Amino acid sequence: MSSKRKCLSISDKKKIIEEIESGKKKKEVADSFKIPFSSLSTILKQKEAILNTTDAQSSRKKRRLSEFPRIEQCLFTWFNQVRQQNIPVSGILIKEKAKSYAEMFGISDFNASDGWLSNFKKRHNFVFKKICGESASVDEDICNDWQMKLQDLLCEYDPKNVFNADETGLFFKCLPDRTLTFKNEKCHGGKLSKERVTLLFAVNMDGSEKLRPLFIGKSAKPRCFKNVKSLPVTYKNNKKSWMTTKLWNEWLETLNNDMRKQHRKIIIFVDNCTAHNNPPTLSNVRIEFLPANTTSKLQPLDQGIIKNFKLLYRKEIVSEFLACLDNNDSPKVTVLTAIIISHKAWNNVTTQTIQNCFRKCGFVKTIDNEEEEIPMTLEVDTQHNTLSTVLNDQLTFEDYVAIDDDLAVCGSLTDDEIFASFNNEEGYDEENDEEESPEDPIVNSKEAKLGLRAVLSYLQRHDIDDNVFSSILNLDNTIDKVNSSSCKQSKISDFFKK
């Protein structure tokens, strides 16, 4: 991939069209504006849309700050929730809801006047529009307009600094024999709420950087976490195991700090999930929202990256399931098991898959109009015969992979939950998950090294790369370092006991 491309404003594109229409040769125009011939062809194809677009204003008026920020934060969260449900909202309803939040905060001097409402609308840059019945479907015109805007945005960033982030729900415990129970379940609550988690993935445009996943569970301290000090994901929890404004903003601030330390400025494209709608002020991360109801076409993670992750995750679950069947064991998947398998699956999503998904969404122009297929094949064919004995006749492996496609990742909060999120109240479930299986036995350094030798003995009988031996050596050295550190700490503790 190339680094920065030449950025053309709408005015520049209009001049290009004028010069072509005046009779100039395309090669001369392309050379004059220092753009490749493919870019010129794209501009000419978008001629009508470009000529109907006005130049963006270079500056914006500063918004007047609110005297009651917490009331407006709650109100803005509530407003976005009801609008996403296609519920019409009037000015009177907004004023009544604002009074309700003011009462919850104990603010007696708040006046929901017409003047306040007008300023509130200006501060949050929205107007009351009629809601159309087709609003939930993808609008092709909106998608085309977005593609034009996207190219202008991409001019300002290297591919490595262009990110997409998105959440997905996962029925992490679902074994192949329970697929019918979970199929098409949205899981806003109820019996299956303990069976689900939410994961946030973020990846950059050239596929060189897959950020550490955010893994959101229900319990603050699952029993399987006992004696566990390191995880390959960032683990958070709340009562519904889904994304909230608080968790999203914390994740953004951590990302911003990381980018500031790296002296990088990035842009991150996200959908209009209710949890995303009140982001903090960030110095090194620019947030760009995708148009509503278009993510199925415009969001790279939705174009195959998340699906690829789930294919890999289910493959590992199937392997665990079949191994338990062979040993007459009862298969169980804990939160810790799900974290380890999720890490492996995410790590195995390829750079090619990521690049292809960004390309499919228009982030990268396809050469000669050829689209590469997104690789989805997995080595599960040999397991299909055995798997068919535990799957319902009406279900396939593809059904099993897609069981949580409709799973909610964020949702409508109650007034109490909205109030709590802006009143510094956690409200998280601190109880252990009683359904977790017993914790794994503690392994000492001697047992760990013996296990590593068994792995080495197995691999030596096969034709493997030298890098694998280096990895095993690194693991062996790590075990020695951890053991040495533990021994030193024990000696220090024993010294102070004397």
Q: What sequence of helices (H) and strands (E) makes up the elements?
A: HHHHHHHHEHEEEHEEHHHHHHHHH
N-C termini distance: 64 Å
The total strand number stands at: 6
Mean pLDDT: 78
Secondary structure category: alpha/beta
CATH class of the largest domain: Alpha Beta
Percent of sequence in beta strands: 5-15%
User: What is the CATH topology of the largest domain?
Assistant: Nucleotidyltransferase, domain 5
- Return the domain count: 3
Query: What would CATH call the homologous superfamily of the largest domain?
Result: Ribonuclease H-like superfamily/Ribonuclease H
Q: If classified by CATH, what would the architecture of the largest domain be?
A: 2-Layer Sandwich
User: Judging from the principal axes of the Cα atoms, what is the shape?
Assistant: globular
Strand order of the largest sheet: 4-3-2-1-5-6
Biggest sheet overview: 6 strands, mixed
Rg: 27 Å
**Helix fraction bin:** 40-55%
Low-confidence stretches: 54-63, 129-136, 179-184, 187-191, 367-371, 377-382, 425-431
Number of alpha- plus pi-helical segments: 19
